[in-house]
Specification:
The complex is a heterodimer of chains A (354) and B (343).
Chain A (H helix, E strand, L loop, with lengths): L3 H17 L1 H21 L7 E7 L4 H12 L3 E6 L6 H7 L4 E5 L9 E6 L3 H15 L6 E5 L7 H31 L2 H4 L6 H31 L7 H25 L3 H19 L14 H4 L3 H14 L4 H29 L4
Parallel strand pairs in A: 1-2, 1-3
Antiparallel strand pairs in A: 3-4
Helix pairs in contact in A: 1-8, 2-6, 2-8, 6-8, 6-9, 6-10, 6-12, 8-9, 9-10, 9-12, 9-13, 12-13
Chain B lengths: L1 H15 L2 H8 L1 H8 L10 E7 L7 H8 L4 E7 L2 H9 L5 E6 L2 E7 L3 H16 L6 E6 L7 H31 L1 H5 L6 H30 L8 H24 L4 H18 L11 H5 L5 H15 L7 H25 L1
Parallel strand pairs in B: 1-2, 1-3
Antiparallel strand pairs in B: 3-4
Classes of the chains: A alpha/beta (354), B alpha/beta (343).
Amino acid sequence: MLKLKRIIHIAGKEFISIYRDKLSMTILILLPLIIVGILGNVLRFELNDVKFAVFDKSGSSLFISLIQELDKTKEFSFNGNLNHQNEIIPAFISEDLKFVLFVPENFERGGEVNVFLNGSDLLMSEAVMQRLSAHFAEPLPFEYSFIYNEELKSEIEILPGLVMIALIIVASIMLSMSVNRERERGTARLLIITPAGMNEIIAGKSIPYLIVSIVHGFSVYLLSLFMFGIEINQGVFNFFLLTVLFSVATMMTGLFIAALVKNELELLIGCWLFIFIPNVFFSGFIFPLQSMESIITPVASIMPGRLFIEGYKGVVFRLTSIDVNAKYFIILAFQSLFFYAVSVYLLKRNFFRK
Amino acid sequence: MRLLIATIKKEFLQLIRNRVLLFLVLVCPIVVLGLIPLSFDGEYRLRAGFCDINNQMQSDTVAERVASSFMFDRTIFYDNIESAEDAMERGELDMIFVSSDEGYNLILDGTFPRRAMTSLYAMSYEMMQDKSPGVVYQTLFNSGRMYKHYYLISLVVLVITILGAALLTLNIVNERESGVEEQFKATLMERKIYLLGKFVFFTIFCLAEIIICYLFCFFVYDLPLKGDIVPLFLVSILFVFDLLAMAMFIASFSKTQLRAVYILTITLVLLIMLSTMFSHLSSMPAWAAATRFINPLWYGVESSRKVILMGATLFEIQGLITGMILVSFILLLSQITIYRLER
């Protein structure tokens, strides 16, 4: 049986050790705010001021007005004229151009305009092609509207991913570092002479970091509201439930890595390579789940990062009820239990060894 | 010189005698480069819902085109708009195409704006076919249309950044925290030799990792090297200098490993996200885009992409090379200043 009193004592010890290292505590508390606050205003995936140049052999006034139109848009920025065809490739390299418009001499007599795209970044060049096609095209044969984000604000796209990154870094590193330090410094051997068992030690150590994660959830909530104008309203309970479950799941994954490695260096590299990078790439933050190769989709769909982002979108943007999001909550809870059980099993074998 | 070689040998033995760490630094980059590229294959796989309100089957022709399109993965028909919206609420649809007496209406899921714009393009492409007559698109630098190549370079830089920065920073701070550095003060070895030995060893280590990573990319993903090997080697070595100088700088004011981990984490996250590894410079505000000039990761990504993917020569990337040298110089100068102040 777990003794609540012992857990509280260990939690108290952990609180004091966090509180006494003022610099680390400040970074710990501010980290999510810095990540979400700075990157939320900076990181965008939309096209904006994409540089292009023109090699015009026609001198057509019609085309000059078309360039002016393109330059006036938010997406494109005219970088200048090229005088010779040989200048096209070097201009892509040195001027960082994304496309070059080549206008033939017979443009006004029906000649085709060539658009040379920088294919080294194929996703960018396809996005440019889509926008240019829309610009050159006839009116669309249908009306269109956006649901859940009517103005198509780009911060809506990045915010769930940034919150996920902020929480995952802090949650996965905090608890695992604390456990690893006890072992690396040999203080774990002092714990062996206390009546506390491994479950009580882990539970006691987890509580302060869980509280820190809730504080992070609250600060991110306020930041989203005041900086980005995103109101959560009726989804507040679901949002905090999701934050807690996600933090616990990543904490337990971090604990699992701590149980496998010996020192803080291995732990840091392990957390970055096995928790941070996979969750960033397989969560749908950078690339949508549907664009992933089919072999990895089943794994990606149960990644904690993906569950958080989908849950966040449901709770905050789509305002879905708890039953729609229940699957994300259940999988996160199951992952927490699984990694907790495995970590405790491993730590029972190696925690008290230096 | 003898002491320098002895320090390098010490670092080497320290690394190979720790089997877990050796596994992490040698095998994991390959695992990361083997698995992470599965997260993007360039296909859209859009999911469209069709809703014919008046049952006049007006949308049938559109649906047929969409169903056979390479851009779409799934087309589902709904009896009423509410059930289609429920599916979108559950994240199962990217768009709903509604056909009624008043015409066609396309409802797009705005929670993923990039995908919403692609959905809009795909639907208009299928309905209008030749959307922009008189315009021909040609893709340069990537005739095989390989989506992964651009991000492979980002991944190589990312892996080297994590390994190089974490190893050097925590190596220095760990020895300081455990008192090993203090013991060295009682030997013939000067602190500058001690730090130089670490710097040289981790430079060699990072270059070896870069070679392993690129060989893996060349053989497994057919990553083409359009430029010469000399510019690639030069930009790689300058990137490693920048990165390790930054790592030493962080180590110089971190008293404990815990602090070093927090400072390193926050620094790396910001540098990675601002480095255009996964986003674009033009999308950032001017002040954020300007931070690239002091960001070692941006130099690493940008110069490697230009040499590998676009075949840039040394002359064409001279600006980047100058920037990399300046960043190394400033960081190492700061390091020396801190060292002298400590003395």
